[in-house]
Write a structure and sequence with these properties.
Elements: H1 5-33, H2 36-42, H3 48-68, H4 79-86, H5 92-100, H6 109-123, H7 126-145, H8 159-181, H9 187-205
Length: 208
């Protein structure tokens, strides 16, 4: 295996735990900021300002967490570095042996690694690389210089970039856990639990 394999598998476990929290914050953000009925009914109420603050805090947290998973420094949890480790040529044979050892092996190693290569290509595309760069700039400029004050819930928060990076992050977490650790993560389950909890919070403020 590549020299960094064990280190990056620990990093993958950390990234997976971080992403579970991201899912909950993302779904809470969607429940209170993107539900048009809720937004319309809370507008001009006594709790409107508090909701704006909560949305800003959630966006700040999402930007920090998502960009942190793509930082390149040696001490960071870097999903790009994990992908690169799994896609090194010397990883192919050990992964094939690992996959053959599964009691019920329905995973073709070469097909699975081809999927990781497609994800890596997407990360290097202008669209995704630009989204990560813009969110990182937003984090460094707004968060670092404002003492972790909430990012205003407007166009500056790069909502489309958050959605795009969130989606590819989920894809990387699920794929790498299956290929490298035989861990099957079911994103729909995590999403449904997070949505249910977010709906309970939202409906406790204004029942829909």
């Amino acid at each position: 295996m590549p020299a960094r394999f064990q280190t990056d598998m620990v990093a993958l476990h950390k990234a997976s735990n971080i992403f579970v929290g991201v899912v909950h914050r993302y779904e809470l953000y969607r429940a209170i900021a993107r539900n048009q009925e809720f937004v319309a009914r809370i507008h001009n109420t006594n709790t409107a300002y508090a909701m704006t603050t909560i949305v800003g805090v959630l966006m700040t947290s999402l930007v920090i967490s998502l960009t942190g998973l793509f930082d390149g420094d040696a001490d960071s949890v870097s999903l790009k570095r994990i992908l690169n480790t799994l896609l090194q040529p010397q990883a192919v044979a050990p992964l094939e042996r690992f996959h053959r050892s599964w009691p019920k092996n329905h995973l073709n190693t070469h097909d699975a690694l081809a999927g990781l290569k497609r994800i890596r290509s997407r990360l290097n595309s202008d669209r995704l690389d630009g989204a990560i760069s813009r969110l990182r700039d937003l984090r460094n400029r707004e968060v670092a210089h404002l003492g972790l004050q909430p990012i205003p819930a407007d166009e500056k928060a790069k909502i489309g970039d958050i959605d795009l990076v969130y989606g590819v992050t989920a894809n990387i977490i699920v794929s790498c856990n299956l290929i490298a650790a035989a861990r099957k993560i079911h994103p729909r389950h995590f999403r449904e639990v997070a949505q249910s909890q977010a709906d309970i919070f939202r409906n406790s403020i204004i029942p829909l």
